[in-house]
TrEMBL record:
The chain crosses the membrane at residues 12-36, 74-96, 108-132, 152-172, 215-235, 275-297. Belongs to the binding-protein-dependent transport system permease family. It comes from the Bacteria. This is Lactose ABC transporter permease.
C-alpha cells in the first residue's frame, strides 16, 4: 500500500510541470533565445546575408563614441518624455478625481476618456498630421480666422514644435489609461477615511492633497516607472507622423523626431541592414531603460517616504 500511495503522489506532482511545459518551452523559444541571440549578434558585423565577422564590442564603441545621431535620438526621446509624462500623470489624476466624484454618467465619462487609448496608432498619426498640416490643418485655419497668425505656421517642420506634437500625441493616447489606474486606486481607498476627514471639517482640496494623493503613492510610482520604460520605446507616434512625407523621411525636421527605436529600426532593417549594429542599439537602450527606471524609482519613492 505504501508503494502504491508513493507512486500515486509522484504522478500527481508531475502534472503541474506538464501543464507548465508548453509555456516554458514557448518562452524559451520565442523570448529568452531571441534576447540571448541578439546579444550574440551585437558582437558581430553582419547584414543578414554575408558571413558574420566577429568584432567584439566594436559595434558598441561605434555607437557610443562615433555615432552622434544615437545621442541625438536618445536626447530627443528624453525631451519628449519630459514634455509628456508629467502632463499625462497630472491630467489622468485630475480626471480620475473628477470622475470619482461623479454621481451620474460616470461610465459614459470613463468610456469616452479611455477611447483614445484603444485607438490604432495609424489613426492617431493621421489625425494629428491632418490637424497640424501647414496648408490644410485645422489649427492653422482656426488661428488664421481669429487673426492670431498672419500666415500658416509650419508646425510639423519646426524641431521643437515637432517634439511638442509628438508629446501631445502621447498625452492624448495615454491619459485615459492613467485615469483608469488612478480611479481604481481611489476606489480601493476605504470610505471611512473620507468620512472622518469630512467630520473634521477638511475641505475637498485639503482631502485630495493630504489623504488621496499620499494613499496613491504606490500607484504613482508604478505609473512613472512603467511610463519611462514605455517612453524609451517610443516609435509609432513619430514614425506615423513623419513616415508618410516621403519614402526616405527619417527623423523629421533636423532629426528632432528621431527616437532610439526609430533609429534602431532604420539602421537594422531599412537604410543600413546592419543587424549587429541594431542589436548593439537595442542592448544599449536596455541599459539606459534600467538606469533611468532605477533613478526615477529612487527619486519618487524617496520623496514619497519623506512626505
Amino acid at each position: 500500500m505504501k508503494n502504491t500511495s508513493a507512486g500515486y503522489s509522484r504522478k500527481i506532482q508531475i502534472w503541474p510541470y506538464l501543464f507548465a511545459l508548453p509555456f516554458v518551452l514557448s518562452y524559451l523559444a520565442f523570448q529568452l533565445y531571441p534576447v540571448i541571440y541578439s546579444f550574440f549578434l551585437s558582437l558581430y558585423d553582419w547584414n543578414g546575408v554575408s558571413d558574420k565577422e566577429f568584432i567584439g564590442f566594436g559595434n558598441y564603441s561605434d555607437l557610443l563614441l562615433r555615432d552622434p545621431l544615437f545621442w541625438k535620438s536618445l536626447w530627443n526621446t528624453i525631451i519628449i518624455m519630459l514634455l509628456a509624462i508629467p502632463l499625462t500623470i497630472g491630467i489622468g489624476l485630475l480626471l480620475a478625481n473628477l470622475t470619482f466624484q461623479l454621481v451620474k454618467g460616470k461610465r459614459f465619462f470613463q468610456t469616452a476618456i479611455f477611447t483614445p487609448y484603444i485607438t490604432t496608432p495609424v489613426a492617431i498619426g493621421f489625425i494629428f498630421s491632418y490637424m497640424f498640416d501647414w496648408q490644410s490643418g485645422i489649427l492653422n485655419q482656426i488661428l488664421l480666422k481669429l487673426g492670431l497668425l498672419g500666415e500658416p505656421y509650419y508646425w510639423l517642420q519646426t524641431p521643437f514644435t515637432a517634439q511638442c506634437i509628438i508629446a501631445l500625441m502621447f498625452i492624448w493616447k495615454n491619459f485615459g489609461y492613467f485615469m483608469t489606474i488612478y480611479l481604481a486606486g481611489m476606489t480601493a481607498i476605504p470610505q471611512d477615511v473620507y468620512e472622518a476627514a469630512k467630520m473634521d471639517g477638511s475641505s475637498s482640496r485639503n482631502t485630495f492633497f493630504k489623504i488621496t494623493l499620499p494613499l496613491l503613492k504606490n500607484i504613482s510610482i508604478f505609473l512613472i516607472v512603467t511610463t519611462i520604460i514605455t517612453g524609451f520605446q517610443l516609435f509609432d507616434e513619430p514614425k506615423l507622423l513623419y513616415g508618410g512625407w516621403s519614402a526616405n523621411s527619417v527623423g523629421g525636421p533636423d532629426n528632432a523626431a528621431l527616437t532610439v527605436i526609430w533609429k534602431f529600426v532604420d539602421n537594422t532593417f531599412i537604410s543600413d541592414s546592419r543587424l549587429g549594429y541594431g542589436s548593439a542599439i537595442a542592448y544599449s537602450l536596455f541599459v539606459f531603460i534600467v538606469l533611468f527606471s532605477l533613478i526615477s524609482y529612487r527619486v519618487t519613492a524617496g520623496k514619497a517616504d519623506k512626505k
